Amino acid sequence: MFSSRLNWSQHPNRLSILLAEKRQAGAQILDLTESNPTRVGLAYPQAEILDALGVASALRYHPSPRGLDSAREAVAGYYHDRGTEISPDRVLLTASTSEAYAYLFKLLTNPGDEILAPRPSYPLFEFLAGLESVQIRQYPLRYDGAWHVDFDALKRAISPRTRGIVVVNPNNPTGSFLKQAELDILDSLAAERGLAILSDEVFRDYAFGGEADRVSTLVGDRQALTFSMSGLSKIAGLPQMKLGWIVASGPRSEEAPDQAMDALELIADTYLSVATPVQLALPRLLEVSGRILQEIRQRTAVNLSRLRAAIHGSPATLLRLEGGWYAVLQVPRTRTEEEWTLKLLDECGVLVQPGFFFDFESEAYLVLSLLPEPATFAEGVSRLLRVAAA
Question: Any residues with CB less than 8 A from the CB of 129 and at least 6 apart, and which?
Fold first, then answer.
C-alpha cells in the first residue's frame, strides 16, 4: 500500500529498547547524547526572543517563495559580520536544513541519481535522499591524528549518475573542518565533473581554536556551483524556530547560481513552508543570537576541557576535535561498540552513542555530546572511564 521510499526498518535496536525499559522503570540516566540546546540549562534572552515574535505584522500573510526581503537581508548581514559579502538575492529561506537538502535534491537529481556524502557523518542523508528517490554513495574521511578527505576514494565513488557532493563543515560528529587545500581540490574536481557542492555549515560558529588553513564557509566565488546551508537551529540554539537557508555561489562569470535560485524559488513556491512570524523576527533573533552562541561555546569548552583532563592516563583516546558539539572517544576493543553502550547504560546509567550510528568503519568509538550540564557530563564521563579502566 505504501511507497517503497519508506521501506526502512522501524524495529528498535537493543540500545533504544534498553533505554525505554530504564526510563519506564524510573532509572536516572546521565544522557551524554543530548543535543537539544533548549534542554540543557542554558540562559536564553527570553524577553527579547518573545518580543521579536510578537509583532503585529505577523498577522498578515504576504507569501514570498525566496523569503521576505528583510529576512534575507538579515542572513546577508550574518555573513557580513563574519567577513563574507553576499547578495540577499542569492539567499533562499527554508524551514530547516533538512528541507534545504530536500529542495537541493529536487533541484539537482532525477530518480535513481546519486549524491556523494562523507563517512563518518550524521545518519540523515540516506533518509532524506530516499524520500526523493535518490541514492547516497559515501566517500571516506581518514584519520591519522587529523581528519582528511580521501580524494582517491571520492573520485572512485563518482559515477555517471552522480549529481553532487555533500560536505559537512565542520563534520558531525568528527568536528573536522575542511582545509583550504582540500577545498581547492574539491572545487576543481566538482567543476571538472559538472557536479554541485552541497555544504552543510550549521556548526561553523563553534570552532575550537583557529587554524589559518581552516575553511569556515564555502560562500563566495567558486569554480563549481555551490550551495551553503545553515540556520537558527545551531547558530542561535533555536531549533524550534524552524528557519534555515540556502546560499548559492559559483563562477562570477556564469549564470548557473542565478538559474539555480530561480528553480529553487519555483520549488519553494510549491510549499511556502517558512512561517511569517519567524521571518519577521529573524533580524532581531540574529542580533540576540550572539548571547546564545556564547553560552553554547562556553558550555562545550568547559565540557571539552573536563573531558581532556579526565581521559589523561586512561585507556580512552579523544580524537582530534576542531569544532561542533560532539566528541569522539576511541575505547579499547575489548568489546563491540554495541556492547560498550549497553554495558554503560545497563550498569552505569550512562547513555552514549556507538560509532556505527555514524558509519565509523572500525571499532570501537563512542560519541558524546558536549552540551549536557557540566555536572551531568563530568559524572557520566567518570563512570565511562571507570568501565574502560576495568
Answer: 105, 115, 135, 136
